[in-house]
Amino acid sequence: MPKFRELGAPKCRDSLNTTTPDQNSLIAKRYSIQQRLGRGSFGTVYLVRDTKAAFGEHLKVLKEIPVGGLNPNETVQATQEAQLLSQLHHPAILKFYTSFLERDAFCIITEYCEDRDLDCKLEELRVAGQSLSEKQVTEWLIQLLLGVHYMHQRRILHRDLKAKNIFLKRNIVKIGDFGVSCLLMGSCDLATTFTGTPYYMSPEALSHRGYDSKSDIWSLGCILYEMCCLEHAFEGHNFLSVVMKIVEGSSPCLPDTYSRELNSIMQSMLEKDPLSRISAADALRTKFIEENMQSIKHKFSGLTLRDRCSGGNTAQILRAVRKVHLQTLRERSEVQKMTPRERMRLRKLQAADEEARKLKLVAEEKYQENRLRVQEFRSRNFQKVSVDVLNEREENTACQIQQVTAQRNTPTEHPGPMGDQLCTSESLGHDIPEDPQSAEAYYYEERFESCSEEEEEEEEGEEAPEEPVPSDTFHQTFGQDSDLEAMIKHMKNVLEGDSSGAASVAPERSEPLTAAQGTRGINCTMVKSRIQRMRESVCQRLGGETFQKVYDYLKQARDRSESEGHIREALSRLVDRPSDCFEVDQLLYYEELLQDSQNTTCFDKAQAGAGLTEQSGS
Ligand SMILES: Nc1ncnc2c1ncn2[C@@H]1O[C@H](COP(=O)(O)OP(=O)(O)OP(=O)(O)O)[C@@H](O)[C@H]1O
C-alpha cells in the first residue's frame, strides 16, 4: 500500500511543471508525488517534483522504505551515513540528494533517470532481436569502472550491483543505491546476504567468505557479460543451481563478435579468487580501456561543445519570448492608465531596455565566441593543458564581459537584464558549494532572494505562475559541471595517473563507511520486511495456493537434501515453469539465514551477559 498520495500522474515534463500542489500535501515541505515508478525489494519508488529545486532539477526520485520498529539509534546512524553519501559526486553515480524520516518511512531522494534502467534497456534489445555494439558496451563499461573506482577509493562498497541498479540518462550510465544496502540493513554482512541478487553474487559472498571491493568487480563482470549477450552470465533453473555454477562452474566467454581484449577484461573480472581478480583501478589502467577512454574523452569534448551552443540558443529564445510577453502586458493595461509624466518615464525605461537588449546580444555573442575558442583550445590541447587553467580563462573571459557590461550600463543608470544575469551567473560559478543541498540553497538565494524589485514587478505582471526563466547558458557554463564534463575530468585524471581522483569533490575516507555500520546491530525489521515483500511478490505471481504447495515441498526437499533433478521433476507437477519457483527457493534460503543470524545474536547477547556477570563477579 503506498503511503504517499500521487498528485496525478502526468507523463510529460511540461505538464509536471504546471502542477501546483497544495502546500499541505508536500512531503518534507517540498516534494510532490507525480507518479509511482515501481516497487523494489526495499520499498516503493516515486517520481517527485521538488518545489525548491534548481532549474532543470525539479524531477527527482523518492524511495520510500518502511522502517517499522527502527530504533532511534539506528535512525540517527542511518541518517548520518546518508549524509555522507550525499557528499559524493560522480557522473556515473546516481546523485543521492538527501534522506529523511516521514510517516514511519525512511525516505531517500535521488536523481531521476528518465531513460530507466539497464535491465529494461537490455530487455528491449532482447525483444527487438538487437544487441549492443562493442563501442557502446565499452563506453558504458568505462563509465561504470570510473564510478566504481571512485566509490572504492572512498571505501564504499555497493554489494548489490546488477543491471536493475544501473540507470541511463542521456547515454550516461549511473549506478544507483551505492552504499544504500548497508545503510538500511544496519549490518554489512547481512546487507550482502539479503540484498545481493544471486545472478551477480561473487563466489566468496555466496560461500560466506567475506565481501570486499573485488566482489563488486565480480558483479560488474556479470553486467559486462549481460550487456554483450543479453542474458545472465550464470543461469540456472533454480537458486541453488545458480549458486553452484557461480561457486564451482567455469566463467563464460563472450561471443566472437566481441574483441579478445574485451573478453579478456571480463575474464579478469570473473576470476573466482578475489585476490587474482582485477580491481577497478587496474582495469582502468589496461591498454584496451586506456585507448578507448582517450577516444571517448574526445567524443565527449565535442558533445559538450554542441550542447552548449544549442543550450545557448534555447535560452536566448526563451528570454526573448518572455520580454515580448511582458511588453505586451505593459502596453495593453498599464500604459492606458498612466499620466503623461509616467508615460514619459516609461518611454525612457523602454529606451534603456532597448539599449540593454542590444548590449546583451553583443555580450552573448562575445561570450559564445569565447566559449567556442576555449573549447577548441581545450580539445586541441587536452593532453597538456590542465582544466584548472582553462577554468581560469573562462572566469577571466566572464569577468571581461561583466566589466564591459557594467561600463556600458552605467550611463543609463539602468542595469537592465543583461547586467543582472551576468552578475548572478558569474557569482554562481565562483562560489557554488559542492554539496548539492547547499548548492541548491545557494542557487535559490542567488536567483530568487537577490531578485530586484523590477524583476518582482515583472513576475507579478504575468498571467500564469511560471518557472523562473533560466539563464541556461550561464548556469550550464559557470555552474556545476555537466555530467559529460565531469566524466571527461575523471577520465583525464585516470589517464594522467592521478589515483586520488582529483576531479572528485568529496572527501576520501580513511575509514571505510562499512566500519561505522559494522558497529550497528542487525536491523531485523528491515530484513523481515524484505522477506515479507519477497513472499508477497512470489505469492502474487504464483497464486497463494500454489505458492504454499511449492514452499512446503521445497522446504522438505531441502531438508531431505533431494537431488536437483528430482526437485525439478516434482516442481514441474506443481507449476508450468519450475524456474518460476526460483524466488521461493531464495526465500527459504533467506529465512534460514535470518533464523541463524537471530540465533547468533541471541547467543552473542547471552555470552556478553555472561561475560559481564563474570567480570562483575571477579
Ligand atoms: N533514480 C531512478 N530513476 C528512474 N527510475 C528509477 C529510479 N530509481 C528506481 N527507478 C525505477 O523504480 C522501480 C523500482 O526500483 P527499485 O530500485 O526500488 O527496485 P528494483 O531495482 O526493481 O529492485 P531492488 O530493490 O531489489 O533493487 C524500477 O523500475 C526502477 O527502474
Automatic annotation (TrEMBL):
Principal location: nucleus
Presence of keyword Signal: no
Domain Protein kinase: 31-289
Localization annotation: Nucleus, Nucleolus
Role played: Protein kinase which plays an important role in the G2/M checkpoint response to DNA damage. Controls degradation of CDC25A by directly phosphorylating it on residues whose phosphorylation is required for BTRC-mediated polyubiquitination and degradation.
Family membership noted in the UniProt record: Belongs to the protein kinase superfamily. NEK Ser/Thr protein kinase family. NIMA subfamily.
Protein name: Serine/threonine-protein kinase Nek11
Protein's organism: Chanos chanos (Milkfish)
Gene symbol of the encoding locus: nek11
